[in-house]
Fold this sequence. Notes:
Blueprint: H1 4-7, H2 11-26, E1 54-62, H3 66-73, H4 79-92, E2 97-107, H5 112-128, E3 132-140, E4 150-161, E5 176-181, H6 190-197, H7 215-219, H8 227-235, E6 241-244, H9 249-254, E7 262-266, H10 275-284, H11 288-294, E8 299-305, H12 310-319, E9 325-332
Amino acid sequence: MTTYKDAGVDVEAGDDTVDRIRSTVRETFTPGVLADIGAFGSFFEPELEGVETPVLVSSIDGVGTKLKVAARMDRYDTVGQDLVNHCVNDIAVCGATPLYFLDYYGVGTLDPETAEAVVEGFAAACKENECALVGGEIAEMPDVYGEGDFDLVGSIVGMVDKTDIVEGEAVRPGDVLLGVPSTGIHTNGYTLARTVLFDTYDVQDRPPELEGASIGEALLRVHRSYLRPIQALLEAGLAQGLVHVTGGGLPGNVRRVVPDDCVAVIDYDVWERPPLFSFIQNLGNVPEDDMRQTFNLGVGLVVIVRGDEVQTAAECLERMGESPFRIGRVEAAPDETDA
Length: 339
């Protein structure tokens, strides 16, 4: 006789996990949530008062191989926060306010305690962003994921009034790029970072270049949310374009919101990179182009503002507790006919 558990799937562990996370998930519920966890679908009734033309904005993403670092550290309470904040930032730079979040947690062998820590991370970030965690999927698949392996994917839905969508179409030559600091590598570039660092160090090592932090601590710093400063800028009418710096680094992401007749010029020498980035580059002899196209280099959010509003925008961000700095400008794209 062969049972489902013998085949590698523990239904009781799944039930235990749901029992563990039920109260945590409920704490994220906002007034729009209409169903408890466990239903076949999630129901959300948005508040539309004051919104003339509501537009839903959605995004889906993962945490990547940062999960490998979490496993090495045996610490799982931060990667859920990373995922929620990453998704929130992606729609916030479009002008949207997050409404609800759903997750996928795929694992080889389900450990309820680990799953609980991951979901607690989801919940902490959802509460910070006033976003409901309305549902998710826990999939135990030993034939897909190896022993100790797991994957996280998150999907978010937000809303913006159509007239308030931020796409960068208002960006023009003379605009200025303000950078807002990141909290670390965030959730991109970990394959390169792990290749370089773990060839020489263990997660508990504390090289002097990291100023007291261990390798694991530096790599697991939470991918922060920029929702509040973004909202403050938009309410003040100061942002012509907004960039969440993810895969592709500054050049790849800034390009996404700059019109075809413009070009963003970034001065990489005007800010001091956090020690982790210089450490990775020097230890691995990583080319500068690779650094720029892989990592955020200490800039997690870019705000494009009018040249005569730079000071006002900087003061707005400073009131939100941020430390913005000027990183570049927008120029007219070269005329190809002048070659």
